[in-house]
Design goal:
Elements lengths: L9 H28 L6
Length: 43
């Protein structure tokens, strides 16, 4: 999967970082939502 033109990996890393942050926020939001909708969710 090597591309002939490498842009120092910066755009790919930035996109990966954004996706990672969105995934973390999504998981945190889902946990908060489940905790509010179902108070006994973890147990």
């Amino acid at each position: 999967m090597t591309t002939p033109k490498e842009d120092d990996g910066s755009p790919k890393f930035g996109r990966l970082l954004i996706v990672l942050i969105l995934a973390v926020l999504l998981c945190a939001g889902l946990t908060w939502l489940m905790g509010n909708v179902f108070p006994n969710f973890p147990g």
